[in-house]
Task: structure prediction
Amino acid sequence: MQITIRGHHLSITPAIEENIRFKFSQMTKHLDQVNSMQVKLSKDHQIDKRSKKGSANHIAEAIVRLPGIEFFAQATGDDMYASIKKLTEKIKKQLTRYRKMQMNFQPLPIS
Result:
């Protein structure tokens, strides 16, 4: 499985990269059909006029490709690690739903 990590308006530190690879490898260890993943991390530099600081300005997006289907999720948070955690929860929910559908639609063996 290939994981591509890109940063937009921020640099990817080794700690963030290791965190992403660990969380996504744990999530997909029961699904061997995953072809590739793209993770895009970005930081929005807009400032809230009332509080004078950016709220939920760390954005994490992911595209997970399986044969014949793609999953997309986006999460925001005040911290990059929090947005990555939310992102992995969203993708995990989609993958478990897909896996349950695959289990329910398996053809019965002919005996």
